[in-house]
Amino acid sequence: MSEQLERLNRLPLRGNLRGLEPYGAPQLDVPILLNVNENTHGLPETVHQAIVSAVSAAAAGLNRYPDREFTELRTALSRYLEHGLTAENIWAANGSNEVLQQILQAFGGPGRTLLSFPPTYSMYPLLASGTDTEYVAVPRGADFTISPEAVAAAVAEAAANVVVLCSPNNPTGTALGLDVVEAAYEAGEASNAIVIVDEAYAEFAHAGTPSALTLLPGRERLIVSRTMSKAFALAGARVGYLAAAPQIADALRLVRLPYHLSAITQATALAALEHAGALLANVEDIKTQRDRIVDGLAELGLKPAPSDSNFVFFGGLDDPHAVWQGLLETGVLIRDVGIPGHLRVTAGTEAETTAFLDGIKALMSSRV
Ligand code: PMP
């Protein structure tokens, strides 16, 4: 046992936190960072300036607590999402991680289960243990897909209290069909399950890929979770949100900390939403770079999964760690998600993407 773990275990830590590791994508000082699915394109200058002005105005009132209901932000988010949604349907928090945590605080907890389908977002089990919710993992098939039948059977068998479906899925990149969401929702009727569709990467999907937002009418246990960290290039501002029936937001009001969204956060998010057009133009370029990566890796004989996100998951590697290390030595950091034979890379700017593709081509031709 490491000295650090021994020290930690001397404390009266809750049993279900003993031996756990914190979420830990390496934060290394490397010129090209393609490891945590950030928006690599930065903020356009107009958006940067708009945020600076909005934050400056908000700073003048920082002696007061912010609007606890962040009504202006909820209205702006509902307009952005369309689908007939209004402010009552929206809730937000400090990143979609906090949104998910609040959902588990309200609907999970001791004696309750969170069901998901790995390989999927690595925070789900940590959010479960942090809220004392039992995590039930039903693995995907060999090709990392899940069928509506398999999902329905898993939901029924687990009598799940909360189900989380990630679409497009992290780390595999592929979106789910709405039939999978419908199947989870219907199978969850018996246990009155909350069904979350985590659409953190929705804006990067190929045209025609439907969002679970279309399924919300009439489904009061369905939650669609989104974030401003990816398409809106605001990972550092920490703004995530959800769309659902108004009573879901009412449930989360019971567990949120008062004034959890700072005035600076609200001002930043509002300014960015006013410039959604400029930010979504960058999303189009990121999609182009993503498709270059898929094509480039396939040309090298590797096996990229179809991607509806801003990253590409690829297999066909004999020694993924050696490829990860070789790229790091050329100044490109990508992600080893611990799945045999596979790695994951975030789409970069055009120059960053070229550096990645050149780097991996050189490594594959020297047969790492
Ligand atoms: N969901 C998924 C699938 C993610 O990949 C991430 C970020 N990596 C998040 C949620 C959380 O993002 P944030 O808290 O920045 O909104």
Automatic annotation (TrEMBL):
It holds the Pfam family Aminotran_1_2. Its cofactor is pyridoxal 5'-phosphate. GO terms for molecular function: histidinol-phosphate transaminase activity. Pathway: Amino-acid biosynthesis; L-histidine biosynthesis; L-histidine from 5-phospho-alpha-D-ribose 1-diphosphate: step 7/9. Residues 32-359 form the Aminotransferase class I/classII large domain. Keywords: Amino-acid biosynthesis, Aminotransferase, Histidine biosynthesis, Pyridoxal phosphate, Transferase. It catalyses: L-histidinol phosphate + 2-oxoglutarate = 3-(imidazol-4-yl)-2-oxopropyl phosphate + L-glutamate. The keyword Transferase applies. Its EC number is 2.6.1.9. InterPro entries: Aminotrans_II_pyridoxalP_BS, Aminotransferase_I/II_large, HisP_aminotrans, PyrdxlP-dep_Trfase, PyrdxlP-dep_Trfase_major, PyrdxlP-dep_Trfase_small. Signal peptide: none annotated. The modification N6-(pyridoxal phosphate)lysine is found at residue 230. Belongs to the class-II pyridoxal-phosphate-dependent aminotransferase family. Histidinol-phosphate aminotransferase subfamily. Homodimer. This is Histidinol-phosphate aminotransferase. The lineage of its organism: Bacteria, Bacillati, Actinomycetota, Actinomycetes, Micrococcales.
